[in-house]
Amino acid sequence: MPQTDKQVCIPPELPDLLKQFTKAAIRTQPPDLIQWASEYFSAMARGELPPVRERTDRVPLTNYAELTPELLKVLHQRVGGRLIVHVDELAQMWKVLNLPTDLFDSVMNVGRFTEEIEWLKFLALACSSLGVTIAKTLKIICEVLANENDTGPARIPFSTFQFLYTYIAEVDGEISASHVSRMLNYIEQEIIGPDGLIKVTDFTQNPRVRLE
């Protein structure tokens, strides 16, 4: 005779798990909830960040269709410090933020990226779509990469700046390698302090630093 009074055990983590899922779904507003739910729990099972739209006071959800430095910072946080990102994963992050697919394709084409994407290069080209000049582009990159806990002008390691400036100049094609080398040598010898960091003001307000 079957037992009908057997107590059902509810896993203790289930209520909080469902609560977080519900909040994430409300925040993200996915067009296909079932598909998104599958991607959400699959990511969690793999120990990865689920495809959840970040909440930020500076970027209203209604503006998520337009690329902004704030959204690039959200994207950078999702990459989580990795140097290489797979194209499918990055495309999914881009999609979750509801960013234009044609812009993603354009960055992919300009950077000639394939399956494994160098994140800093992709970020540099994405920032270049917002910056009119190389200096402006590097300013945006610094603001995206900077530690939010720092006060004052955004700053990043000079080695990172060196890599990004060299790459952007190469893609631009109109700045000689000798000019890039002179600027980097001057910045390293005359501006960079013992902390090895470069501030936005070091290359935007110094008349001797001409990046273009």
TrEMBL record:
Primary location class: other
Keyword Phosphoprotein listed: yes
Signal peptide: none
SUPFAM superfamilies: Dimerization-anchoring domain of cAMP-dependent PK regulatory subunit
Keywords: Cell projection, Cilium, Flagellum, Phosphoprotein, Ubl conjugation
Gene Ontology process terms (BP): cilium organization; flagellated sperm motility; protein localization to cilium; sperm capacitation
Compartments where found: Cell projection, Cilium, Flagellum
Gene3D superfamilies referenced in this protein's UniProt entry, alphabetically: cAMP-dependent protein kinase regulatory subunit, dimerization-anchoring domain
GO cellular component: sperm cytoplasmic droplet; sperm principal piece
Protein role: Important for male fertility. With ROPN1L, involved in fibrous sheath integrity and sperm motility, plays a role in PKA-dependent signaling processes required for spermatozoa capacitation.
Family stated for the protein in its record: Belongs to the ropporin family.
Name by which UniProt lists this protein: Ropporin-1A
Organism: Salvator merianae
